[in-house]
Amino acid sequence: MCEQKKERPALMPASACNKWWQKAVVYQVYPRSFQDSSGDGIGDLRGIISRLDYLKTLGVDAIWLSPVYCSPQDDNGYDISDYRDIDPMFGTLEDMKQLIGEAKKRNIRIVMDLVLNHTSDEHRWFKEAKKGWDNPYHDYYVWRDGKEGVPPNDMKAAFGGSAWTWVPELSQYYFHQFSVKQPDLNWDNPKVRREIYDMILWWMALGVGGFRLDVIDQIAKVPDEKITANGPKLHEYIREMSRETFQKGDLITVGEAWGATPELAKLYSNPDGSEFSMVFQFQHMMLDQQEGREKWDLSPLPFVKLKKNLAGWQQALYGCGWNSLFWDNHDLPRIVSHWGNDGVYREKSAKMLATILHGMQGTPYIYQGEELGMTNADFESIDQFRDIETLNMYRERIEKGYDPEDVMCSVHAKSRDNARTPMQWDDSENAGFTTGTPWIGVNGNYKTINAASQVGRPDSVFSYYQKLIGLRKAYDIFADGYFELLMPEDPQIFVYTRTDEQTEMLVYANFYDKEADCPVLSDWADAQCLIANEDRAPKRTALHAYEAGILVRKR
């Protein structure tokens, strides 16, 4: 757990946060579930283009696209068969160029999702690699000699089963940390790295504004020593990649690093730009699973630990790194169902969670539908789920004798499909997502939770997010203010200050559905309220269920 600093460091000057992405807000689009323009039930690039004005209205600065490259779709596009072309299900390369151009007209940048740890087994490189040991592409992947049925070691793949798959014609195993159809690339081979750098430069020339790098902390794996994340050459490879590519443009780059610590994040997000702009770390999102167990093994959220964890990251990276801020993405459950209240307090708790996150230092990421308070999938049967991770886990646990009801409880809480149901645009059939049959079911609550009912409504979740985004652009303190957690042991209140050379800001929130006292508020009676999800008399210190807001004053 991150420890808080005992003393406040020298405050950063406002000029220190001079990168465009330090005041930006990024919106993640999961393309297959965002907007279908063709009626085939699958979202596509032209659908995204048709919704750019919605995103402009929201106020975001960049769109992170989950993969749209050619892919057999074994893992929903994270198994890439051609890095330089678009999968026909999403459109064409010309559609991609149009999206980049149309977004630019609206001052929105497109951030591509790069999967560099592995490819699809249908990628041209792997097809060549299987032709023989002497093939020039053989060493693009990780192979080990062996005997059929006796893998090199007992390493397990993240999606279940062995991490080694036998290829009879070669009498070798190949290594895959995920699906059997996702063979790991061999980053020790300089030819592999050069191919990757040339591909990145190609996308940069097309005008993309940045990259999100999938499981990037696993590229330097040493499988013989059972090392996957944070291998010995990891930062050497990342610095080389950055030097050869990212540093040649004005990009936002964010690495997905499940094993990141604050100390490692200082390397990843060094202000000298030698690696990335920032990383996605997941310590806070793993607090409600049983220690040492899988994410499916649920545990109550230790709220005090959550506060201290987030505070530790805020303070550890102040002036020497940069945080990514997120509750949701395509791999996580919907936050309003996860740690909020998706019943009677859905809108209020969604605003509360947004207040806490957007008040911190870092770059906020909004996952599609989060700005509407979309909830977890309402599926009743395992047959309604599509996610390979979820289906494999269900099958394995049923085979081991787990109670099906308990397994489904875990699925409903943590399945990645919770975030992958179609975007809820309006109350028409299929929520306005498609005129066809959706690739995955639409959440049944779309009649009441949809964009059409919220855009322009002043008290909507959408309007609240819109205002938060505007505040980050209007007040420098969101980017440069020092973070200090107050009432750290309180079991219900999340309250902190942000301080820069001229201004102080207080962010307060009641995380639960019972009233709680926040005595700190008595010292801020004369402060200006920037935003709140409930009107509050200046001298009232009792916070109602899920009440939250942001106050500001001159120092």
Give the termini separation.
32 Å
Tell me, rounded to a whole number, the average pLDDT: 95
Strand content: 15-25%
SS-derived structural category: alpha/beta
The largest pleated sheet is described as: 8 strands, parallel
Principal-axes shape call: globular
How would you sum up this structure, described in words?
- The N terminus is likely disordered.
- With 555 residues, the chain is an alpha/beta fold.
- Helix 10 packs parallel to helix 13 and helix 11 runs antiparallel to helix 12.
- The strands form 5 sheets. The protein has an 8-stranded parallel sheet with strand order 11-10-9-5-2-1-13-12, covered by helices on one side.
- Strand 10, helix 7 and strand 11 form a beta-alpha-beta unit.
- It is globular, with a radius of gyration of 23 Å.
- It has 14 helices and 20 strands.
- The longest helix is centred in the middle third of the chain and has 16 residues.
Q: Quick recap of the structure?
A:
The chain has 555 residues and is an alpha/beta fold. It has helices at 45-50, 52-58, 93-105, 124-129, 190-205, 234-244, 262-268, 303-316, 335-338, 346-358, 388-399, 404-414, 461-474, 477-480; strands at residues 26-29, 62-65, 69-70, 82-86, 109-115, 143-145, 164-167, 172-175, 210-214, 252-256, 278-280, 324-325, 363-367, 482-486, 493-499, 503-510, 516-517, 528-532, 542-543, 548-554.
SSE order and pairing:
Elements: E1 26-29, H1 45-50, H2 52-58, E2 62-65, E3 69-70, E4 82-86, H3 93-105, E5 109-115, H4 124-129, E6 143-145, E7 164-167, E8 172-175, H5 190-205, E9 210-214, H6 234-244, E10 252-256, H7 262-268, E11 278-280, H8 303-316, E12 324-325, H9 335-338, H10 346-358, E13 363-367, H11 388-399, H12 404-414, H13 461-474, H14 477-480, E14 482-486, E15 493-499, E16 503-510, E17 516-517, E18 528-532, E19 542-543, E20 548-554
Parallel strand pairs: 1-2, 1-13, 2-5, 5-9, 9-10, 10-11, 12-13
Antiparallel strand pairs: 3-4, 6-8, 7-8, 14-15, 15-16, 16-20, 17-19, 18-20
Helix pairs in contact: 10-13, 11-12
